[in-house]
């Protein structure tokens, strides 16, 4: 009996240390033990009135379009329609304009992308979550594409597919073809949570050719931000849980992707913006567990981080940490859009974004 009891005690102790070790590893991988040194060589001002500016992108003329959704209110069970804002940093008056037309469906925007035709017509694609839950739900998603006109949006088309399990971000190739990321491999909340904490690589990238969707990349760890270089030959995908930027060559005829490089970051990389010189600007979460706590509690500050990634003629890369704040100035940065010397930094939950000069 004593031997049996000792065996049980040994098993309990083993399980305790196994679970404790798993928790420590998870927190270490999430960056919770990192020492952060805030810095930025420029100045930032908050632009109040835009809730949950999760994604921001600049047009070629210096006007920014902003995806906005009040996610905390949705968590509480109140349905508030999301919107798209126009923001002109250089304007003297009316810098911020609500562009959203009346829609006969729920509109909860996530990632956005712009395509500007040589003829001058501009298209905006939006990942739209129809559900009243936070971010993703089995209730459905769509990609809504709008024609952008001066100070207004006109709905152009809407597409959906069962393959869009958990869409996050999008990049337009032309007015009706695009790549979109699935940040989870399942629509079940429980399975999504397990994917995150077990760091499973079940995510993928889809391509829509104007008629149907297909999987073009898989085995990704929380496929988040996506973007493409200026000539369309290289596609970038941020893997938040994987803490890396995956770089794919793109076949211009078939739109197939081939992984050519992965750049490791010690941070949860999020949305990707590309500037006029093909540099990448990435909003990031240096402490992902803290960010998870911030999602559930607004009093928990989550550090904000911005990276710049540049490439030389031989495709050698340089990573610069441009901005780092512990969360007092902005919590949970997801995007950094750049035009000339202006950086617009957005986040998931704050009721403002930052307009920074550097």
Helix fraction by DSSP (H/I, runs of at least 4): 10-25%
Calculate the mean pLDDT score and round it: 89
Structural class: mainly beta
| Low-pLDDT segments, ≥5 res | 132-138
Distance between the termini: 72 Å
Shape: globular
- Helix count, per DSSP? 4
DSSP summary, beta strand count: 24
> How big is the Rg?
21 Å
* Largest sheet descriptor: 4 strands, antiparallel
What sequence of helices (H) and strands (E) makes up the elements? HEEEHEEEEEEEEHEEEEEEEEHEEEEE
**Order of strands side by side in the largest beta sheet?**
1-24-23-22
Residue share in β-strands: over 45%
What brief labels describe this structure?
mainly beta; 4 helices; globular; 45% strand; 4-stranded antiparallel beta sheet; 358 residues
Notes on the structure:
The protein has 358 residues and is mainly β. A four-stranded antiparallel β-sheet has the order 1-24-23-22, with no helix packed on it. The chain is globular and about 80 Å long. About 2% of the residues have low confidence.
SSE layout and pairings?
Blueprint: H1 2-29, E1 43-48, E2 53-58, E3 64-68, H2 71-75, E4 83-87, E5 96-98, E6 109-116, E7 122-129, E8 141-149, E9 152-159, E10 167-174, E11 177-182, H3 189-197, E12 203-208, E13 213-220, E14 223-228, E15 234-239, E16 244-250, E17 257-264, E18 268-274, E19 280-285, H4 288-296, E20 304-311, E21 317-325, E22 333-339, E23 342-347, E24 352-357
Antiparallel strand pairs: 1-24, 2-3, 3-4, 4-5, 6-7, 7-8, 8-9, 10-11, 11-12, 12-13, 14-15, 15-16, 16-17, 18-19, 19-20, 20-21, 22-23, 23-24
């Amino acid at each position: 009996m004593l031997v049996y009891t000792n065996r049980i005690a040994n098993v309990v102790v083993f399980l305790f240390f196994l679970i404790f070790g798993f928790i420590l590893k998870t927190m270490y991988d999430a960056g919770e033990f990192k020492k952060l040194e805030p810095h930025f060589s420029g100045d930032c001002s908050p632009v109040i009135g835009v809730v949950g500016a999760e994604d921001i992108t600049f047009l070629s003329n210096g006007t920014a379009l902003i995806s906005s959704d009040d996610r905390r209110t949705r968590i509480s069970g109140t349905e508030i329609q999301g919107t798209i804002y126009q923001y002109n940093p250089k304007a003297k008056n009316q810098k911020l304009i609500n562009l959203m037309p009346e829609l006969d469906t729920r509109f909860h925007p996530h990632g956005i992308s712009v395509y500007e035709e040589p003829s001058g017509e501009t298209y905006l694609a939006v990942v739209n979550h129809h559900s009243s839950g936070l971010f993703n739900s089995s209730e459905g998603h769509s990609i809504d594409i709008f024609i952008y006109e001066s100070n207004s949006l006109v709905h152009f088309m809407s597409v959906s597919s069962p393959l869009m399990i958990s869409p996050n971000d999008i990049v337009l190739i032309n007015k009706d073809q695009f790549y979109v990321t699935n940040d989870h491999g399942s629509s079940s909340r429980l399975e999504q949570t397990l994917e995150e904490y077990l760091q499973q690589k079940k995510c993928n990238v889809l391509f829509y050719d104007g008629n149907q969707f297909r999987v073009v990349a898989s085995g990704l760890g929380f496929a988040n931000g996506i973007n493409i270089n200026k000539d369309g030959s290289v596609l970038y995908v941020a893997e938040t849980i994987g803490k890396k930027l995956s770089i794919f060559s793109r076949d211009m005829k078939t739109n197939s992707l081939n992984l050519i490089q992965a750049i490791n970051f010690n941070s949860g990389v999020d949305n990707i913006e590309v500037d006029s010189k093909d540099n990448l600007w990435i909003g990031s979460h240096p402490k992902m567990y803290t960010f998870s706590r911030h999602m559930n509690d607004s009093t928990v500050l989550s550090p904000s981080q911005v990276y710049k990634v540049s490439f030389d003629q031989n495709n050698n890369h340089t990573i610069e940490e441009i901005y780092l704040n512990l969360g007092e100035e902005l919590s949970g940065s997801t995007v950094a859009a750049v035009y000339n010397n202006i950086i617009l930094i957005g986040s998931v939950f704050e009721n403002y974004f930052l307009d920074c000069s550097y």
